[in-house]
Structures are given as structure tokens and as C-alpha cells.
Amino acid sequence: MSRRVTSVVGGLEVPGAPGGCVQSVNPARVSEVVAEVALGDAGTFAAAARAARAAQRSWADVPAPVRGRAVAHMGRLVEANAERLARLVTAETGKPYAEALGEVREIVDTCDFFLGEGRRLYGQTVPSEMPDKQLFTFRTPVGVAAVITAGNFPVAVPSWYLVPALLCGNTVVWKPADYASASARALFDLLGHGGGLPAGVLNLVLADGEQTFAGLTRALQDGCVDKIGFTGSSTVGARIGELAGRHLQSPCLELGGKNPMVITPTADIDLAVSAALFSGFGTAGQRCTSLGTIIVHASIAGEFTSKLDTAVRQAPVGDPSAGVLYGPMLNQRFADRFEHYLTCIQPHHHLLGSDHTGRITTRNPRPGFIGDPAAGLYYHPVVVAGVRQDDTLFREETFGPIIGLTTYHDLDEAITLANAPGYGLSSSIYTRDAADAFHFRRHITAGMISVNNSTSGAEAHLPFGGNAKSGNGSRQSGTWILDQFTRWQSMNWDYSGTLQKAQMDTTELTPDQSFRLDD
Ligand code: UN1
Prior knowledge:
By secondary structure, the protein is of the alpha/beta class.
């Protein structure tokens, strides 16, 4: 039986469906409706931002260690509901259950990290250039954060924003992806109940993209949003950045990736094959950290590609509750876009990993498929060998079970190819040579580098984020996100009883610059 989910503004469920109703459907069994979603509209978003603004000052007055305890309780409640939440994530996104459980674990990890930050959130005491004067720095909350997130990680990635934003004393308007509304509402309820959050501190707005953009525009004009966090496509990220810039704000943007994996002659080839399989096809290639293009040294390309071909053919694909490598596409929109990218395969390409491309059906079958392919949005995996620099498949993020493959002769050529699409999120190198690894690190534009590991699977307490088309340099996770959700405030306190003027009333010792040591 499907549930009905609504927005929550100022602690109250929004009545009706000002933005219309949509269904959230299980992509593994499209006949199954997971939730009826009552959407809000631009007005709902603006109202949520006003509610957040009204609640912000008293939330910031809650001592940071107490907010840290709230985060601790959120983590424990998420942990106590881990299986239920993971089952819901699988039902709504088609992500294999083991991955969904990992995603829930990432929320708990995030809470575990930030619960202690409530007792740190350090400022500094700084010496003054004058006597009887002291300088200090404080981290102050930014104010109201508007957080807009994607549905491929419907609960973990939102927690990277929500948990630290709340910990730092901000209030939040959260707009999750509409096709993952039930998972979002579940996380919203767990954080709200777990944290004992007062009304208005965390608000949930379910809305489509255009209404959200209009609502965000209005909320910014009303002066009710101070910080935007956005995870999604580079195209929408650029629009958000433009809007934020008009209000002199710098958003936290986590955008797409075309993540390269370079396989050098000294690589452990079997290890590289297993990583290419997981990072290319895990989550059906729908992570922003998914592998885009394999760049393999010509001397080992034959062995590597034949092993990869076999591994992809043998990989279990199908029902996400059945221990598969990957299940269906997230929803019809993503399936349609992926089908577009399949039309970009050209005669000079050579396909590996499967005898078929496109939707898996009884007429276009995949050997060993687990479950009923007709029930969901399942697609054949494909490795496209021979991609060239000007191919669409080389240049664009494809967000589906497809990876490109090309070869190189020297490492600088590989790095040039790796950087060529102009993204800069994640990257990977397989090598046993430390010099190769550090040379790659130094010259790759990516914000994240894996050595002998997958492009995906970042841990929740290292800086996460990208450069160029992957973001504006902002970083999430760990202490680095504190710079997004707090601002430094400096204070100087003069207790000398006189007006001591900086740079003018300072004393100076007299150096003897002519002094020389005896020979
Ligand atoms: C995303 O796809 O938006 O590093 C985030 C990873 C995950 C997060 C992916 N921990 O693959």
C-alpha cells in the first residue's frame, strides 16, 4: 500500500497539493507506487524560508554542544531505523539493498562526526599588536540554508548538508528530488524526531524544479535565504550559481562528473577490472562519482579489456533485493536520458560487456538476469571501446550503465585525456609506482583522487567536491563543510582605557641591521 507524503513547513504538514500530485514509483517494479506525493509550489518554498528565518535566532541560541547532542540522537534514531530506511530507499530508487544500507550508514557516519563538533566549533584567541587589547574569532551560523538535493543518494547526500547546517545553528529548507520523496520524508522525520527539533528549524518542501527555482528566487528577494546548497547537474548548478551571485551569495555546489580511471602498466589488472566494474556499473552508473572513461596503457589494453568484457558479461544484474551489481535506472526520466546517450554510440566504437544494448526485455535478454526484466527499467551494461576526445560519450556525463574506454602511451597523455572533458570531481589511478600516483595527483583537476580504488565510495569525513564543471570549489563533509555553514566573525576588545589606533600607535623595537659576526 502506498503512503501519501507532503511538505512540512513550520512544523505543519502543508494541506492540499498546491503544485499538483505525482506518484513515486518503484523503478524495479513500475506497477508499484511507493508514495503519492503532494507537491508544494513556489509559495510553499517561500513560506518555508520565512518559517526557517523566524526559527533561526532561537535555534542559534541553543548552545552548540546541545545541538551536538541533538545530532547524536539523530544518528542513533537513524541507526535504529536503518533497515526500514534502506528498504524504502531501495523501493524508491532501485538501488541494491546492500548499497542502500551503506547509504544509511553514511548518514550515521555523518552524525557521528558532527556530534563532537558541537563541543569544538572552535574560534581563536589572537594576540593584538597593542597592549591591553585582545582579538578573537567566532564561527557564526550563516542563517537560513536552502538545500536542494538529487535522488540518486536520496538520504546520505542530503545528510551531508542538513546535519552540519543544523549543528552550526542554521535553520533549513530542504527540497529533495520529487521522485525520491518518501525516502526524503522518512529522513526528515528521523532527523526531526531524533533531534527534538523545534518547529521551523528544518522544513521540507516537495516541489518540481521550476516551482523550486521560482520559490528560491522569491525567498532570496524576501531576504529569507542566506546560503544555498545544491547537488545536481552542472547545467542547473550554473543557473543556481547565477541566481545566488545576484544576491552576493556563494552557493555550495556539488555537480556532475566525468570521472576517469587511468590504468598504468604496473597496475594489478584483476584489481583494476573489479574496480571498473563497481565504479562503472554500481548504482547503474548513476553516482556523480561513477566511472566515466577508462584510460588504459596500450601495453596492457588487450588483457585488461578482455578481462573487463568477461566481468561485465558475468555481472549479476536485476532485482535490487537480490544481491545484484545493479538494478534499474532511478526513474523514467533517467532511463530516457540514458537512451539518448545510447544513440551517441558511433561506427568507430567497439562494444564490450554485452551482446545487446538498451532496455533488457525478453526479446532483448541478458543471460543470467535476476527477476522479471519487463517489471522495471533495466538496461544492459555497455563498455564503449575506442572513444575519441570529440565524442559526446567522451565529453559528457552519461549517468547510466555505460563506460568509455581508450588507450594511452605516456602518463602525461593519460592525464590530458582524463582532464579533457572539463569536469573535476573524482578520479582514479591503478599503479604500483608511487611516482606515477603523485604525478597524477599533481596534474589531475579532480577534487578527489583514488589510488588503486574505485572512483566512487568516498568516506564521509574527507572533503568531497569538485572543480571546473563539477562545482565551484566548495567542499562538503568533515570540518571543511563548516566553512560553508558558518562565517568567521572577528572581535577586538581594547581594555587599555585609551584609544589605541591600529597601525599608528604600535611600538616597534629598534633593530641593528648593520650588525655582522666576526670572521
Ligand atoms: C553522489 O553521487 O552524489 O562517493 C554522491 C560516493 C558516495 C557519494 C556519491 N559516497 O560514491
